[in-house]
Amino acid sequence: MLENPFILEPFKSKAYFCDREKETEEIIRNITNGRNTTLISPRRLGKTGLIFRVFDEMKERKLPYETIYCDISDTLSIEAFIKVISEAVVGRLGKQQKITAFFKTLKSVRPLLGIDPLTGSPQVSFTFADDNQKQSTLKEVLGYLESYPQMVVLAIDEFQQIREYGDVNMEAILRKHIQHLHNVRFIFCGSKKHTMTDMFTNAKKPFYESTAFLYLSKLPIPVYSAFIKEKFALAGKTIDDDSIGFIIEWTKDHTYYTQRLCNEVFSLSGEAIGRKDIVTAIQTILDSERDRFQEIRRLVTRSQWKMLAAIAMEDSVSQITSAAFLSKYKISSGPTALRNIKALIDKELVLATTIENGTGYSVYNVFLSRFLANNIQHLRP
Ligand SMILES: Nc1ncnc2c1ncn2[C@@H]1O[C@H](COP(=O)(O)OP(=O)(O)OP(=O)(O)O)[C@@H](O)[C@H]1O
Ligand SMILES: [Mg+2]
């Protein structure tokens, strides 16, 4: 049996990854020309996948770099940050000898090495006596990378998270250490555009103008369409252009959602795929997501849910306080709309994007958006 070619993980291999050729080149060019990169896009569009695509390409071209990836989304402190980076380094080193050498360079503290019983990946634990010890250990970890026999690329995913580290100014601390490194190139990746942009373009912030920016957009529709057609064809399935157009339109060309629908269509269909198969796949997905949608509903107030449904009905809204929008969806007032939209953005349920004449608001999760738009009863008070 052929494996489903529509992957639901960030990266498997180049064959299952659509396009991003220009972006891959651009990041490699930044790396090989001594520039750090800031990579930004809304969630689930393909940033993490792109990082792995870049690493894979660098390996294929035999570029002399060690590539290290870490995701700091679960970190809430400088200790946790040091732990995640150290584990990523250890995971890359592989051999015990090298790991011992790495630990030897950490003079301020004695780390302990373990293995995560669930994933089998290395676990490093530290016990810090005070803040000074944390700071010096961070410096030593980065110092290790600086003295590494090869150049190093360190990708830090969900970088905006460092703003959640309580009262330490992690940006200032990191910047202080990073600016002296010559052997390490960084990729700072994040989905909170406002925070990321503030970090790197605000003259008052430590990372001001220290990196090259890359805003990842949606995949070009003709390229993605050709990719989808080809993947079905390689598995002996035919699909007409209208159906592909419908898939991309329905999922708003938002990579994860498009992949998920294609994956479902692939798993449910026979050799010839038509509109009916896609409708069945959509139904299957929406049914399987129903519990999660109910969960989200419980996380918001009645009035916020109503607002979310209104935005879904409109697809995208810019005039959030206009009389027309408020009266059409029976929203009590402009201030209520503004309050609700702010709460929904904070909860990452609504995505705010800059458009020609201001800000456009849409429901972040495309499946939820379609679900709400199709279920008008959610608008009833
Ligand atoms: N170029 C691509 N080709 C095929 N599928 C892709 C591509 N890019 C992303 N995907 C799909 O989209 C999903 C989301 O991608 P990824 O996790 O890289 O996004 P992200 O921007 O890092 O999201 P988040 O901000 O939530 O971490 C992947 O799991 C994969 O299914
Ligand atoms: Mg990601």
Structural class: alpha/beta
Our count of helices gives 15
How does CATH name the architecture of the largest domain? 3-Layer(aba) Sandwich
Distance between the termini: 50 Å
CATH topology name of the largest domain? Rossmann fold
Major sheet: size, sense and barrel closure? Answer: 5 strands, parallel
Mean pLDDT: 94
Approximate strand percentage: 5-15%
Q: What's the Cα radius of gyration?
A: 23 Å
Question: Which ligands appear in the coordinates?
Answer: adenosine-5'-triphosphate, magnesium ion
Question: What is the CATH top level name of the largest domain?
Answer: Alpha Beta
How many E-type strands? 11
Helical coverage, percent range: 40-55%
**Unreliable parts:** none
Descriptive account of the structure:
- With 381 residues, the protein is of the alpha/beta class.
- It has three domains: 20-215, P-loop containing nucleotide triphosphate hydrolases (Rossmann fold); 221-295, Helicase, Ruva Protein, domain 3; 300-379, Arc Repressor Mutant, subunit A, CATH 1.10.10.10.
- It is 50% helix and 14% strand.
- It is built from 15 helices and eleven strands.
- The strands form four sheets. The chain has a five-stranded parallel beta sheet, sandwiched between helices. Strands 3-4 form a two-stranded antiparallel sheet.
- Helix 8 packs across helix 9 (241-250).
- The model has no long low-confidence stretch (mean pLDDT 94).
- Bound molecules: adenosine-5'-triphosphate and magnesium ion.
